[in-house]
Specification:
Blueprint lengths: L2 E7 L3 H10 L5 E6 L6 H7 L3 E4 L7 H10 L7 E4 L4 E3 L3 H11 L3 E7 L11 E4 L2 E3 L3 E4 L5 E4 L5 E10 L10 H11 L4 H13 L3 H13 L6 H14 L4 H11 L4 H13 L3 H12 L18 H12 L3 H14 L4 H7 L5
Length: about 350
């Protein structure tokens, strides 16, 4: 099995050594620099990484990644698209051998995108950026995806990749590139959702409402978890219709915790304790945590137990309040509010 790690980079000198060290067991490590001025190229040379300098104009992430992929030697079996703020967890090569034996074209793996304050994993989902050398191409100006040109086969391996977000890095170019992506393919549900979300983040309320609603009407928009999340965004964007949107979100994805937790929070804020308790308990009935990026850590932490405990307390259900209060503290033992609340829940 021959493996290449490849990446695009600009001004990422501080990450180069950690990234290169994690890829040590690869047969080929390639970095395509797109205009660094901070010593990235020199740091990569020092780390024995093959460096290629390219200028991408106009800038598009898919063009950049396809250019980097074209630089990977033809004899490589698997390509790992590993950004500079990501690392391969030791043991990755042995894990990838499973995919090679099975003949899978795109192995799936555990990807930790963020971390909690105490150092434990935050958002974790299934990664999909390992692929065979031939038969794949990157598409979309931003939020680019690796797309098969041949019939692909997938399977899960025990390989892990950890991401360490760099808050100092500007993402200002994402917004105009997202608009471009939607203009190029208005029927693409993924980019419509991402654009609506970006509009929400930038405070463009009316435009965000329109784009979320357009997304929900797209024929390709069939993933219930993402549709449910869009409805939850609309609940925030249209507070006078929040209950309606949250009920629609739970109906869209009743097997997900997140919409039930949001509904419980909605009723909590209105002191509708019976409804809040019912929604929180319904959330806790969901015990299968999917390995997807829309799986939100707080829905799987103390929050649903906390909401259930508070609602049960105000309804006079002391034993139930105590049970969920203790469960919340067990999941978040350093939270002073949860610990204090527990003293008020009578068994």
């Amino acid at each position: 099995m021959r493996v290449a790690v490849y990446s695009i980079a600009k001004d990422e000198a501080k990450h180069v050594q950690r990234w290169a060290d994690s890829a040590y067991d690869a047969d080929h490590v390639l970095l395509m620099d797109t205009g660094s001025t901070d010593g990235t190229i020199e740091a990569a040379h020092d780390a024995n990484v093959a460096v290629h300098e390219r200028t991408i104009k106009p800038w598009r992430f898919d063009t950049a990644r396809n250019t980097a992929l074209a630089l990977v030697p033809d004899h490589i079996d698997y390509c790992i698209a590993l950004d500079l703020d990501e690392v391969l967890v030791p043991g990755w090569r042995d894990a990838l051998e499973t995919a090679h034996r099975e003949g899978w074209t795109r192995p799936r793996y555990r990807y930790t995108w963020s971390w909690n304050a105490n150092g434990t994993p935050g958002l974790v989902y299934g990664g999909d950026k390992i692929h065979t050398r031939h038969g794949y191409v990157w598409r979309h100006p931003v939020h680019e995806v690796i797309t098969p040109l041949v019939e692909e086969t997938q399977g899960w391996v025990s390989l892990q990749i950890h991401h360490f977000p760099d808050a100092s890095k500007s993402r200002a170019q994402y917004f105009p590139l997202l608009r471009q992506a939607v203009a190029e393919d208005p029927q693409d549900d993924r980019n419509a959702y991402y654009l609506a979300r970006e509009l929400y983040f930038h405070g463009h309320t009316d435009e965000a409402i329109g784009e979320f609603q357009r997304y929900l009407a797209l024929p390709r928009a069939t993933w219930d978890a993402e549709r449910s999340k869009a409805m939850r965004y609309l609940a925030q964007l249209q507070p006078d219709q929040a209950e309606r949107w949250l009920l629609k979100a739970t109906a869209e994805a009743p097997h997900r915790r997140e919409p039930w937790v949001d509904l419980a929070q909605h009723y909590h804020e209105r002191h509708a304790w019976a409804l809040s308790l019912a929604a929180a308990l319904r959330a806790l009935e969901v015990t299968d945590q999917p390995l997807e990026y829309l799986c939100e850590p707080d829905a799987w932490g103390a929050r649903p137990h906390d909401l259930a405990a508070i609602a049960a307390h105000w309804l006079g259900h002391g034993e139930l309040a105590r049970f969920h209060g203790e469960a919340a503290v067990a999941l978040d033992p350093t939270n002073p509010r949860l610990v204090e609340n527990l003293t008020h829940y009578m068994p």
